[in-house]
Design goal:
single chain; 171 residues; mainly beta; Immunoglobulin-like; nine-stranded antiparallel sheet; binds copper (II) ion; binds zinc ion
Amino acid sequence: MKLSPMFVILAASAVAAGAAPVTKAVATLSPTQGSSVAGKVTFAKVDGGVKVSVHVTGLKEGAHGFHIHEFGDCSAPDGLSAGGHFNPSGEPHAGPKDAQRHTGDLGNIEAGKDGAATLEYVDARAAFDGPNNILGHGVIVHAAADDFKTQPTGNAGARLACGVIGAAKGE
Ligand code: CU
Ligand code: ZN
């Protein structure tokens, strides 16, 4: 069957009208095997990117690598099922403020003596559409600090918590 161009245009706009664009997303972080690290990350569309708000508990004091990983799959006990860093543009590993980076390179979170880490910043690369769409990908908190140099992982060590980024109800 050959569809007329007008039909295709009408069908496409019906799809666009039916699906409200995503403006908020959330990832609930659950401990990997042997870990007691858990938390929540929310993502909200703002001017200049996506605001990332993190609250994680159960950490050792200090810096911990924090990334979006390729797969929204936390099924492996060690979190390795989430794959490597989300890197749709094939760039080197770096930090969130670097021009060349993985889209998943969100940097480090810093835990205090109580083991809790909070962070809020606007990420210029993350998005809810296009090639840098973070929806459905994984979030990992690591045992060690990301050094922003070691390729392709930042040498951040074991995976202590894992979650999947899902669309949330908008404002
Ligand atoms: Cu990671
Ligand atoms: Zn990376």
